[in-house]
Amino acid sequence: MASKYSIIQYVPNPIANERINIGVVAFNEAQVRVQFLNNWERVRLFGMEDVTFLKEFADRMSQAADSGLIFPGDNPNTPYQERLKKISTDWLNSIQWTEPRGSLEDVDSLLEDIASNFLVDLTSPKPYVRDRQVAARLTTNKIKNVLRQSIKNDAKELLKINHTVSGSYDKHKFDAVVANGRSYFAAHGVSFEVKITENLQKSLFWMITDVKQCQPDFPIVIVALPPRSDSENYQEYQQNYQQATLNYSKMGAKVLQEDNVEIGVSKILQECGVIVA
What we know:
alpha+beta
């Protein structure tokens, strides 16, 4: 699937039209990935003003990307390229987008490339932490590996990325769904290596409970990345992790760790009759 990208820029004085790159977005019809600067000091000096509003914007856009949106409140029924093209031409304040450009790379590879090329992040090295988007990719890739090893040629057709499952009151988009005419099970990744927002947590609880109310026997897998032991906020993150994973289980979801995803998924697929033991 063809991908596109755009550079997000800060323009403190639109009349002077001087600008600095603050983020990048890569997308196709199924995925949105964003990345912003870690160190905003260079941006603060460039604009000579408080950049708190830029950090808040980055947080909102990152959360929107988790829901498949390019920007909070945009229209998911319009193709991504049309939405971003409209944003890039209509946005007139101090945050602007460049005209979308195409690429043959997949979204994740494209994001890595454009981030390294367009973002100057003058920050000291920090331990690599995996966010929600990384957890989603990990979940999808591990399920893809199980399918490839078990059924080979049909794996691509069975795995649905960012696919919706119906609940009693709403439809919910999961990172990965194995389906062939009907859905066999759904999986979603979450990372506790970073701070989990209250909105994200409530959204995940709602996904599980609503689907389970409609389909009590439908398997839901939550791939949970535990907090890093070297994190400054380890105790807080660990408490959140333990409480959240306990709640997922009580709601009927199966919680899997990174190193046992393949075994857990294989067992579910065998029980569903998708693969033969």
